[in-house]
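Thread: Modeling a multi-component assembly for a lab meeting

Hi all, long-time lurker, first post. My supervisor asked me to bring a structural picture of a complex we are working on to next week's group meeting, and I have zero experience with this. I have the sequence lines for every component (340 residues in total). Could someone generate the structure of the whole assembly? Inputs are pasted exactly as I received them:
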Amino acid sequence: MKSKWTTAIAAAAIVFSSYSASAAKTVEAIKSRGELICGVSTGLGGFSLPDSRGKWTGLDVDICKALAAAILGSSYKVKYIPLSTQQRFTALQSGEVDVLSRNTSWSLTRDTALGLNFTAVTYYDGQGFMVPKALEVKSAKELDGATVCIQPGTTSELNLADYFRANSMTFTPVVIESLQELNAAFFAGRCDAYTTDASGLASTRLNDAPKGKSDDYIILPEIISKEPLGPVVRHGDDQFLDIVKWVIFGLVEAEEFGITSSNVREMASSSKNPNIKRLLGTNPGMGRNLGLDEAWIVNAILAVGNYGEIWERNIPPLGLSRGLNKLWSNGGIMYSPPVR
Ligand SMILES: N[C@@H](CCC(=O)N[C@@H](CS)C(=O)NCC(=O)O)C(=O)O
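Re: Modeling a multi-component assembly
Sure thing. I ran the full set together rather than chain by chain. Output:
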């Protein structure tokens, strides 16, 4: 007769083997199609925006490129799928995209009930308000009775209601799913205020206000929430979750060690620092642990640079400073667990 333990171990083994069978699915699918499918926004300058020839740029896009470089050895092997606020989670759940890299805030409900896993934070943000200067409003506390432009299915929508309730104020939401239509409505004066992540406000003010009119709008000083933005994957694929998480950490770690797109090759061949040798695969093991080539992070850094380079290329043009997104060793909270 089988002991209780043998049965328990056999049951655990079945669970483990079926789990590991499905665990490699996303990476296998990416490798066999030769392309990473990345869900991005429909167009938010600094994060993900296509140019007239369909070339995507932005911080969220650079994360997709880094992932493709780490998994496939080329940052060009990415297909970008633009997704609205409402489409994004369904697209990920249904398998239409491998990863969602789209200014998406980490929250408990999204991380559990939606069947998704947040991987790491690529941008610590918070929600703010933008108003026309002509309104002469100086603080969000003066917005009682305002009409507020907002996209559905966002944390912004939920925080807005909480904030107004907590401050005993009322508002009328103008909810529009299409970003283009929402922006058009706001800049045509249909709303007194526009609310979303502070980064989104800066981007919208700069890129989407009518030509020459950016200065007619101001961003109010209040930040009413925490919005930790980062890539999201589906539940049930630990290897892919690990890869996305550690590629981001690896880019942050590279910044901490002073590894850049221009010196990474030299660092890989001549650095004596054991931390750098491990990260760059000169001392093998980390790539193997992730199920990737040992050059995983070298390829990612060559393609997009370290986290600081990604930041500098995309965010300062929006007029934003690094703030919380500075490295922990530099007064911020951007921090990678050890690569070892
Ligand atoms: N971080 C918030 C808001 C993110 C969000 O989607 N913001 C809008 C307004 S800036 C946006 O990016 N829209 C882009 C689009 O619809 O393509 C969330 O995850 O819910």
